[in-house]
Amino acid sequence: MRRGNLGAGGALFQPPYTPEVNPIERLWRYLKDRLEWYVFENLEFLRITLSKILHKLNNSIISSITCYPFIVDALCVANI
């Protein structure tokens, strides 16, 4: 088990891989959900479609996808 340094002298336990608390996993799920019914002729069409989806993201959407209340609460308690 690894422990991360919080900089304030405390240690925060985090399992080696925890997709449930990794915000990028939720972003990948969001992207995959929007691409799952497409059949792309080539990688360029995939790149263009993915680029369009990413350009539509705003702070509100990103926050709704990646913001876990329990992580925000933990960061507040840790004064980070």
TrEMBL record:
GO terms for molecular function: nucleic acid binding. This is Tc1-like transposase DDE domain-containing protein.
